[in-house]
Specification:
The protein is an alpha/beta fold. The protein has 11 helices and 33 strands. The strands form 9 sheets. A 7-stranded antiparallel β-sheet has the order 1-31-30-33-28-27-26, covered by helices on one side. A 5-stranded mixed β-sheet has the order 3-10-9-5-6, with no helix packed on it. Helix 6 links the parallel strand 19 and strand 20.
Length: about 575
């Protein structure tokens, strides 16, 4: 019989009917300088969801260059925990300033502003109430080890076991698996194209998007944007000490829309694909630091933000490794909320053992052994691994962007079977003016539907599922020794003797998933753990079907695969 994958309720699913107009998450904004002259007891205390976005809007001096001359911050203190969080403010032009805050605990918070440069901004105080998070608000995505505490007694068990080190979690403990996509310069396109991109994302299976702040100059990326990040012009140069509020106001809205859709904004802060007339990749170290400070202060309070210091950092030889470490420290010092941080490579993989890196963001280097390398990267770095560029479905005249959908999906499956995650991309050059990988717009490929299908399988897998290898516990070995049944196998032996050709995911003696990739086997036989009854699902990952064999099985089972490629078999304790 054919069964469907159990429905997965994504943390912030939005009905497709809202595609035409996605509202950004709400900003609870207060202006303490203009509050009515009434007693504190009579004033209405603003309420914001836990992990929501609270903003103090202030008016101050416009003299000189406030981006450089005026520093602003606020101390927020929780009445519940006594913790104080210091948050840096930022200038918005025309004498307008803002401080953004994300309450990490429920209850009352008190704040007071600080500014030595402008008395009008100094010493303003107030309170806010953080209400329980709403239904689709799960807080920041963090490393699972930063969210889940280890078991404190012998009777407790960790649902992820040793896999916890390689996973992400929302702040409320719900597991987060990145199923991302790449639209590098989508916020540098026209408003119509940006709106179309948001509409496409509503119906797409993605919960993360890699995106740049600066425009991109590369093949099929030749147009100048209407708006730049700095005041100035290509003709007369840009003033790297004065930001352009028009661009950042638009970025506010787009990141807020992504948050409303449950999509993490993996913000690429710097990249090498630049025009001489732009010059954003070759700014001075001081200008880089000022920009990174501004970004961290302006967007740190959005719960859906990740920081990628660079796309293809190794193509920017003007910046040393110590520069990147300095830039990481700048982001960490100005992001009061500790979002995820990484950096992305072209050829030379970064050393993700550096403590500032929370996870690995890697472009495949070998053109044939791609996401299979996730197993190596896990061992080398001991952190969550995201293969953010495995290649793209498309037909561009480069190998990285001319994969058939079957191959991109194979790379997806090979990566997830090794307990990493993989990011989508699409680069068709004959489907209109927009190419998803660069501009956003509309998707044309065959992979998104199949990514949605695989999400249902992997998001319903046991959290402790891990690759069958030498680290597999002896009691979790399923197979009988084919040479001498009286001699039990260990994990390495079982992999070498029974599954040398295919990746296996396993959770104890309760669950197993095997993926056959390129192979077109007629059938496969499996040993089952002694004493158990099991159901068996034959999964056609390309045609998106799940066929459950009738009844339950013990001892051994044969699964017919029909000689088809891209098949998988899932076995679960009945």
């Amino acid at each position: 019989m054919t069964v469907t994958t159990p429905t997965v309720t994504t943390p912030t699913a939005v009905n497709a009917a809202t595609a035409a107009a996605v509202d950004p998450i709400a900003i609870v904004r207060v202006s303490p300088q203009t509050a009515p002259a009434e007693s504190a007891a009579d004033a209405a205390t603003p309420h914001v969801e836990r992990y929501g976005l609270f903003e103090i809007a202030l008016a101050g001096t416009a003299d000189g260059n406030p981006y450089v001359d005026v520093d602003l911050s606020a101390d927020f203190t929780s009445a519940t925990t006594g913790e104080t969080i210091t948050v840096g403010g930022f200038y918005r032009g025309n004498g307008d300033y803002a401080i953004r805050f994300m309450p990490l605990e429920e209850g009352e918070w008190c704040y007071v502003t600080r500014s030595a440069a402008d008395p009008a901004l100094n010493g303003l105080s107030g309170t806010l109430i953080a209400d329980p998070a709403g239904e689709n608000n799960h807080g920041r995505v963090l490393r699972a080890t930063d969210v889940h505490r280890a078991a404190t007694s012998a009777t407790e068990t960790d649902p992820a076991g040793s896999e916890l080190a390689f996973q992400f979690s929302y702040e409320d403990g719900i597991r987060y698996m990145p199923f991302g996509t790449t639209c590098y310069a989508w916020t540098s396109q026209s408003q119509a194209v940006q709106d179309q991109t948001v509409e496409t994302l509503v119906a797409a299976p993605f919960n993360k998007i890699r995106m740049c702040v600066f425009p991109k100059f590369y093949d099929f990326n030749n147009a100048d944007p209407d708006v730049f990040a700095y005041e100035g012009s290509m003709e007369n140069g840009f003033d790297h000490t004065r930001f352009n509020e028009e661009l950042f106001s638009n970025l506010d809205r787009r990141i807020g829309q992504l948050c409303a859709l449950g999509i993490e904004a993996d913000i690429i802060l710097l990249h090498p694909y630049d025009k001489p007339e732009w010059g954003f990749s070759k700014m001075s170290r001081e200008a880089d630091i000022m920009y990174l400070t501004y970004m961290a202060r302006r967007y740190g309070a959005y719960r859906n933000v990740w920081w990628s210091l660079a796309n293809e950092y190794d193509l920017m030889p003007q910046k040393s490794l110590e520069d990147w470490r300095t830039y990481a420290r700048v982001v960490m010092a100005n992001d009061a909320f500790g979002h995820l941080r990484s950096i992305h490579n072209c050829v030379t993989v970064y050393d993700y053992n550096e403590p500032w890196c929370t996870h690995c963001s890697i472009q495949r280097v070998d053109v044939t052994r791609t996401t299979e390398c996730i197993a190596d990267w896990r061992r080398e770095y001991g952190k969550p691994v995201v293969c953010d560029e495995p290649g793209y479905e498309g037909n561009i005249y480069w190998g990285w962007g001319s994969l058939p959908a079957t191959e991109l999906m194979r790379r997806y499956w090979e990566g997830l079977m090794r307990c990493g995650t993989v990011t989508h991309g699409e680069s068709f050059i004959d489907k209109g003016d927009q190419i998803w990988w660069a501009h956003g717009g509309t998707l044309h490929g065959e992979t998104p539907a199949r990514i949605a299908f695989m999400r249902g399988i992997f998001e319903n897998a046991p959290r402790a599922a891990s690759p069958l290898d030498a680290d597999t516990a002896p009691e979790d070995v399923w197979s009988v020794n084919p040479v001498d049944a009286s001699q039990p196998l260990n994990g390495a032996m079982e992999k070498a003797m029974k599954f040398w050709d295919v990746p296996v995911l396993r959770a104890g003696t309760d669950w197993q998933l095997v993926y056959f990739g390129w192979y077109q086997q007629l059938y496969r036989e499996f040993d089952l753990p002694a004493g158990g009854e099991y159901t068996v699902d034959v999964i056609d990952t390309w045609n998106m079907t799940i066929d459950r064999l009738p009844g339950t099985y013990a001892g051994t089972v044969r699964a017919d695969l029909g000689g088809r490629q891209y098949m998988a078999v899932r076995i679960q304790r009945a």
